[in-house]
Amino acid sequence: MKVLGIESSCDETGIAVYDSASGRIWQRLYSQIEQHREYGGVVPELASRDHVVKAAPMLGEILAEIGSIDDIDAFAYTRGPGLIGALMVGANLARGLAWALDKPVLGVHHMEGHLLAPMLADEKPLLPFVALLVSGGHTMLVDVRAIGEYRILGETLDDAVGEAFDKTAKLLGLPYPGGPELARLADSVTRSRFEFPRPMINRPGLEFSFSGLKTAALNIVRQNEPLDDDLRAEIAHAFQQAVVDTLRVKCLRALKETGYRSLVIAGGVGANRLLRDALDKATRARRARLYVPALEYCTDNGAMIAYAGALRLLHGQHDQSVSDVLPRWSLETLPAL
Ligand code: KG4
Ligand code: ZN
Fold first, then answer.
1. Which of 165, 182, 247, when mutated, tests ligand 1's pocket best, judged by the most ligand atoms within 8 Å of its CB?
2. Which of 95, 129, 239, 291 is deepest in the core (most CB within 10 A)?
3. Are residues 141 and 278 in the same domain?
4. Is residue 337 a contact partner of residue 311, using CB atoms and an 8 Å limit?
5. pTM above 0.85, yes or no
6. Do 191 and 219 sit in the same domain of this protein?
7. Ligand 1 contact via 179 beta carbon (within 6 Å)
8. Other residues' Cβ atoms within 10 Å of the Cβ of residue 35
9. Same domain, 277 and 307
10. Is residue 159 lining ligand 1, measured as CB closer than 6 Å?
11. Confidence class of residue 226 from pLDDT cuts 50, 70 and 90?
12. How many CB atoms lie within 10 A of CB 21?
């Protein structure tokens, strides 16, 4: 089955075709980052308008590669969570195509897309596994018993980890989105004179809190202004280390509580090199395994939506009627396969 997937939940327009028979993927990805940079964050109205402009030409390019739209068997789009106007662009395009061609269409959960992205790698995680979902809007540990059987073990009580990266990067004068920039700066030094707290690691449970780290960063910046390049790099280094330590402690706790031997990292922050290395080492030391998506499938993309959609469409699931897009949507409400 060839499934065309459309991702438009935030500031990336992603269109991809996944062929379940061969595992082959064709994809196009466009990031609107430059448009939003001068505002220091994503402007929802600009995001929706740009998806409208970019989606149709990208679709045309992919179809030219594949041959014809008649080769597509079904359509998938990101139904939520995300920015409502942005979601509607992808949803309407997918539904319009499906209606015109009389093919099935399915609204996919954005976080399920992230969660299953490691399955696009050659070495697929074995079920059941614990997933650490870390993006700009979410931070959670999920018990994945089977596809569609998700139980949230713990999530952030305040900021998402990507948000904490982006806000701290802004304090350090780095351009938006600051996560990757902060990581680069942090990796440019090997030590730091600063120490950040490791929030909530001494309390039982699998909840996270990252707003305190942002406040700690603000205090350190204020106490050390004006910042030179060395100071900024050392602050970034200490911040990243604290985030990674915190995530590592909670991931290991989740593996212990579930008794599972596989850990998956997904979402934009999953591209963080220190996080990948630290979790790889920590899981190996406990005879568990870490599975990560390829870097291109960590941040938002169409392939993960086409893939998650294909798994469900192959089991006969599809939208029964024109359903609303969902700015908020819990993973736990999804049907099992
Ligand atoms: O999953 P994603 O592309 O979009 C959302 O669904 O939110 O995640 C984007 C987030 C941003 O906060 C970005 O700064 C962060 O992921 N990010 C990183 C890195 N690459 C992206 N954070 C830390 N280190 C990175 N290498
Ligand atoms: Zn995402």
1. 165
2. 239
3. yes
4. yes
5. yes
6. yes
7. yes
8. 15
9. no
10. no
11. very high
12. 7
Establish if 122 belongs to a structural domain.
Answer: no
Atom of ligand 1 nearest to the CA of 82: 6
In the block, tokens 């220091």 appear at: 40
| 37-42 long-range Cβ contacts below 8 angstroms, 24+ apart | 37/175, 37/176, 39/176, 40/170, 40/176, 41/166, 41/176, 42/10, 42/11, 42/83
Contact assessment for residue 254 and residue 141, using Cβ atoms and an 8 Å cutoff = yes
**Number of alpha helices (DSSP H) and beta strands (DSSP E) in the chain:** 10, 10
* Cα separation, 296 vs 290, whole angstroms: 18
- Ligand 1, atom 16, residue with closest C-alpha: 268
Residue 120 lies in a domain: no
Atom of ligand 1 nearest to the CA of 110: 6
Residue 312 is part of which domain span? 2-115+300-333
5 to 18, 147, 216, 221: CA distances (angstroms): 8, 18, 41, 43
Q: If phi over 0 gives left and psi between -120 and 50 gives alpha, with beta otherwise, what is residue 287?
A: left
Rounded (10°) CA dihedral 271, 274, 278, 280: 40
Same-domain check for residues 208 and 173:
yes
75 and 204 co-located in one domain: no
135 CB within 6 A, ligand 1: yes
Q: How confident is the model at residue 103 (pLDDT cuts 50, 70, 90)?
A: very high
pLDDT in tens, 141-164: 999 999 999 999 999 999 999 999
Reply yes or no on whether the pLDDT at 40 is more than 90. no
In this structure, the answer to whether residues 146 and 191 fall within a common structural domain is yes
* Ligand 1 centroid from CA 153, angstroms: 21
- Tens-place pLDDT, residues 275-313: 999 999 999 999 999 999 999 999 999 999 999 999 999
| Tokens, residue 222 | 């204020």
